[in-house]
Design goal:
Helix content: 25-40%
Order of helices and strands: HHEHHEHHEEEEE
Structural class: alpha/beta
Number of helices: 6
Number of strands: 7
Distance between the termini: 106 Å
Oligomer: single chain
């Protein structure tokens, strides 16, 4: 009987020691921040930019990206943009330059919140060929469009809550401009924060 009691007490003691040596882990697991989908964010930036500037039912976009009226911007343009957009983060500008070192083809699968068509250089040449009033033809075909729009790839900061993008528009022979826009993401929505025009006609 005494032997059985001693065995029970020993078992209880060992159980208590085991519990004390392995305290319950009460640490909260670390929060994992998902990696932003930059393809989706780029489309959201385009959509916000188009809606804030034009709010049209149809957009005619050039199918190749540009950062200036003739193609790709030079370092002098980037310097002007950097000096004017006072809230622009260095990493956002660096990413913009990296994304726009060459011209890219826009995807036909983009979701921009409104209808759009992609225009090629051949489309432009056919529309504005000799002995044609190209803009009359353009607005007859696309009466809802605000003009022909060119965009760049979007540059983001590391947190993907600041974006830099170029948008150019030509709406008639001597009616066009090119502007760099700085956007910030607030409560999940992209908003235009600052802008600087780099050319006008």
């Amino acid at each position: 009987m005494l032997r059985s009691l001693l065995c029970v007490l020993l078992l209880v003691f060992l159980t208590a020691c085991s519990s004390n040596s392995n305290p319950t882990n009460t640490q909260i697991p670390p929060t994992v921040t998902p990696t932003p989908d930059l393809t989706l964010e780029e489309e959201l930036v385009y959509s916000a930019l188009l809606q804030k500037n034009f709010s049209a039912d149809l957009y005619v976009l050039m199918n190749k990206t540009q950062t200036d009226i003739t193609g790709l911007a030079d370092e002098q343009t980037y310097q002007h943009v950097n000096e004017t957009l006072t809230e622009l983060e260095p990493e956002t500008l660096a990413d913009f330059k990296k994304q726009n070192d060459v011209s890219h083809t826009l995807k036909t699968s983009m979701i921009l919140g409104s209808r759009y068509i992609l225009f090629s250089l051949e489309d432009m040449q056919g529309l504005f060929g000799e002995n044609q009033n190209g803009w009359d033809i353009f607005y007859t075909r696309y009466p809802e469009a605000p003009g022909i729009i060119t965009v760049s790839k979007v540059g983001f900061n590391l947190a993907a809550d600041q974006a830099l993008v170029y948008l150019g528009i030509q709406s008639h022979w001597l009616a066009g401009s090119g502007t760099y826009f700085l956007l910030v993401k607030k409560d999940g929505v992209w908003e235009i924060d600052q802008s600087v025009m780099t050319w006008i006609s």
